[in-house]
Design brief:
mainly alpha; 3 helices; 73% helix
Length: 75
């Protein structure tokens, strides 16, 4: 979370907990309406979305952080 707080220029990383919690809350409202549908959506999630969330987003945040640090785009 330190890289994300640097990226969004948040002094205290704990302040990111609330926005992340709100995103999780609202995403849970749009989840599947029953268990069999939940299992089918879970297969698609694990195949397509999970790798994106686990790798690509973190890599992009790290690259942006390194570019900003190298070129002194910080205060």
């Amino acid at each position: 979370m330190a890289v994300t707080s640097d990226l969004f220029k948040v002094q205290e990383p704990q302040k990111l907990a609330e926005p992340v919690g709100i995103v999780v809350l609202f995403s849970s409202f749009i989840s599947a309406e029953n268990y069999p549908v939940h299992l089918e959506e879970g297969k698609a999630f694990m195949k397509y979305i999970s790798p994106f969330l686990c790798a690509v987003i973190h890599i992009l945040i790290f690259i942006v952080h390194r570019i900003r640090k190298r070129f002194s785009f910080y205060r």
